[in-house]
Specification:
Helix content is about 55%, strand content about 10%. The chain is of the alpha+beta class. The protein has a domain of about 120 residues. The chain has a five-stranded mixed sheet. A hairpin with a 2-residue loop joins strand 4 and strand 5. Helix 3 runs antiparallel to helix 4, helix 3 runs parallel beside helix 5 and helix 5 packs antiparallel against helix 6. The protein is globular. About 10% of the residues have low confidence.
Length: about 200
């Protein structure tokens, strides 16, 4: 004969309570914007060399540096960690909206694809195109559009810009290779010298 469970409602209430807490936590976390200034990065966290770029999607010199950075990532592989930080210049009207749009793409795990799309279409930056490119990359359109229109990541872009100012950045692109500062669109060889020197240390 099966033994009856005394007070079964206690166990049911406990399980239901846990499920409700999990559901509420999931909804809350997915609705809150990532307002931390944590930047996007590529490469192992323990790479021997970290290359930080403060950049502006409308800056022509940043556009010139874009393929150089890609070539360096390919050459050095896991020895190089690349960190991208926003530094939209005030006289580039499309720079800050583009930065915010890239963060909205990052919300759907497509920051780097969107980053590339912006640099490869630097002469066509506009609110309409930000939304068009999101569709081309397969993002959830309604979620992306709402994110862009609400300027959800304005604070995050501003925080990274403030970090750059604190680090002594005044123009873009500005790079730091293991702390060594390199300013402007420079030949690939300049970066290779700095990276090679850092790898030998």
């Amino acid at each position: 004969m099966r033994k009856k469970v005394k007070y079964p409602w206690v166990y049911v209430s406990f399980v239901v309570g846990i499920l409700v807490i999990v559901a509420i936590s999931f909804i809350f976390l997915n609705q809150q914007p990532n307002q931390s200034s944590e930047p996007y990065s590529k490469g192992p966290a323990d790479a021997k060399v970290t290359m930080v770029e403060y950049s502006d999607f409308q800056c022509p010199y940043c556009g010139m540096s874009y393929p150089v950075v890609k070539a360096l990532q390919q050459k050095y592989g896991n020895n190089l960690r690349f960190v991208y930080k926003h530094f939209p210049l005030p006289f580039h009207p499309n720079a800050e909206p583009a930065a915010e749009a890239s963060e909205c793409a990052g919300e759907q795990s497509k920051f780097w694809e969107y980053h590339d799309k912006l640099f490869e279409n630097q002469d066509s930056l506009s609110n309409a195109n930000y939304k068009k490119w999101a569709g081309e990359l397969g993002l959830k359109q309604a979620q992306f559009d709402q994110c862009v229109d609400s300027r959800k990541y304005k604070s995050k872009v501003e925080q990274q810009t403030k970090q750059g100012q604190d680090d002594g950045v005044s123009g873009t692109p500005t790079f730091y290779i293991n702390g060594q500062k390199i300013v402007g669109a420079r030949p690939q060889s300049v970066f290779e010298q700095a990276i090679d020197a850092a790898l030998k240390q």
